[in-house]
Amino acid sequence: MVSFFTFAILAALPVATAGVLSYVVKAGDTCDSISAANNASTYQLAIVNSGTIDPSCSNLAIGATICLASPGQDCSQTHVVQTGETCNQLESVFGINSTILWANNPQINEDCTNMYTGEVICTAGQVFTPSAPVGSVAADPSDIHPASAPPATTSVGTTTTTTTSSSSSTSPPTTTSTSTSTSSSSSSSSSSSKTTSTSTSATPTPTPDSGDDGDDGDDNLPWCDEL
């Protein structure tokens, strides 16, 4: 039985304020590498950083503080897509139907032809609806395709422009440096050719993830509003 004295002490304890988990970008990071290391899906990361990071993740800057999730809408059950995997395989392995898969990953088209190697997919059995920051317009799911985004090499406050070739839109992020002297190109060219070539090798069977990709997890990361 809880005494009145004990109840009074508990009532006086501070209550955690709801916020958003945050992460500070490091050299060499890409949106998908951040997603994989912190169990935040590609779609979720793009939405909660709408207005800060563009849908193709071409403006990620070293030292920038970005958000990982919204409280109560954090899909921490994720899977990093391997070469040759299909949506049907993911549904079968993780025990989810196509409705839930597409609801949590609306950047994938109806035919699942634009899912790419390295993309981080939410595989939860329930639907999560991350929201854009207040005052920002949520990124269009059809534009979210950071596969060919260069790794972060410039610090916050440094202005650079890069050109992304549409022919490499289905390749996983590379770690090669990108010239900063070229002019910025429109994201429409990359978003219009988001298809993944079919692998000619035997299609592997995805392995259910434990939800831990070898990182220390995001439990100890600060919330955005605590920085």
Description of the molecule:
- This protein has helices at residues 4-12, 31-38, 42-48, 87-94, 98-104, 188-191, and strands spanning 22-24, 65-67, 78-80, 120-122.
- It has 227 residues and is mainly alpha-helical.
- The radius of gyration is 19 Å and the shape is globular.
- 34% of the residues are buried.
- Residues 1-19 and 160-203 have low confidence and may be disordered.
Task: Using brief descriptors, characterize the structure shown.
single chain, 227 residues, mainly alpha, two-stranded antiparallel ribbon, two-stranded antiparallel sheet, 6 helices, globular, disordered N terminus, signal, LysM domain-containing protein, chitin binding, virulence, LysM1-like
In short:
It comes from Sistotremastrum niveocremeum HHB9708. The chain is mainly α.
Number of H/I helices: 6
Spatial separation of the terminal alpha carbons: 39 Å
Identify low-pLDDT runs: 1-19, 160-203
What is the molecular shape?
Answer: globular
Question: What is the H/E order?
Answer: HEHHEEHHEH
**Largest sheet, spatial ordering of strands:** 1-2
Mean pLDDT: 73
How much helicity do the residues have?
10-25%
What would you report as the Rg, rounded to the nearest angstrom?
Answer: 19 Å
Largest sheet: 2 strands, antiparallel
> Strand fraction band?
5-15%
Based on helices, strands and strand pairing, what is the structural class? mainly alpha
What is the number of E strands?
A: 4
Count of discrete domains: 1
GO molecular function, one term: chitin binding
InterPro entries: LysM, LysM1-like, LysM_dom_sf
Biased composition (Low complexity): 146-204
Protein name: LysM domain-containing protein
